[in-house]
Specification:
245 residues; alpha+beta; Immunoglobulin-like; 4-stranded mixed beta sheet; 10 strands
């Protein structure tokens, strides 16, 4: 607002100065011009703005020091002796004796039943010593007969003989009357083993069928041959008989 008032005052003063200068210039110009009357222009009325009176600034009131009223200290009452309350101990429950858990009985190991051995069926043939005789010409052999249980001859049965130091040999199939024999030629006298066997299961050695490892079809009968052909116990030809089904 103050700026607007100052601008208006300055503008008024400028217009007044311009009017005064223009009035001084007119008389000189009229003196120089002769015989031509000119019309005197009426001065233009320029309204003069009344300057706004700026009121003087009001005096700033001096700040007075207001005294601070300090409150008087209040008397603190002396502390009273507060009795200490001792808490009454609560009844602690007596712990119950812990009963140890009953040990579970150890489970006895289950006995695994031992399977009973399978009874091997008895061989179909049963052998036994049928005697013996001497043969002083030097030839030795094992002989005997094979019969059915009813006493009839049993042809086609093979018998094997072997020793502790001899792989042995086999007989030919028993004859129609059930008789068989196995030569012991060139075999030193001693103990021998005799049994009915399956011919197709026997092995060979030096192109000869052996009797020590054949599949047996009867019990093993033990016989002995002697060197002397006379006297007690002299035997060169043992006799072993077999009975089959």
């Amino acid at each position: 607002m103050k700026k607007h008032v100052i601008v208006l005052v300055a503008a008024s003063l400028t217009l007044a100065l311009v009017a005064c200068s223009f009035s001084q210039f007119l008389p000189k110009r009229e003196a120089s011009v002769t015989l031509v009357p000119t019309r005197t222009l009426q001065p233009t009325y320029t309204p003069t703005h009344t300057p706004t009176v700026t009121p003087p600034p009001s005096a700033t009131p001096t700040r007075t020091n207001t005294p601070t009223v300090t409150p008087l200290p209040t008397d603190t009452p002396p502390p009273t002796d507060t009795p200490t309350i001792t808490p009454i101990p609560s009844d602690t429950p007596t712990p119950t004796a812990t009963v140890p858990p009953t040990a579970r009985p150890t489970r006895k190991p289950t006995k695994t039943p031992v399977p009973k051995p399978t009874n091997t069926p008895p061989p179909p043939f049963t052998g036994g010593i049928g005697g013996g005789f001497t043969h002083c010409d030097g030839s030795t052999f094992v002989t005997g007969t094979i019969k059915h249980a009813n006493g009839t001859p049993y042809p086609g049965v093979v018998v094997a003989v072997w020793g502790d130091a001899w792989e042995g040999g086999v007989s030919g199939p028993s004859e129609a009357n059930g008789k068989y024999d196995i030569s012991l030629a060139n075999i030193p006298p001693g103990k021998f083993y005799v049994a009915v066997v399956r011919l197709e299961t026997c092995n060979q050695h030096d192109n000869q069928i052996t009797g020590i490892d054949c599949q047996r079809r009867s019990n093993v009968v033990v016989v002995t041959t002697s060197v002397n052909c006379t006297g007690a116990g002299a035997v060169q030809v043992p006799v072993v008989n077999f009975t089959g089904p």
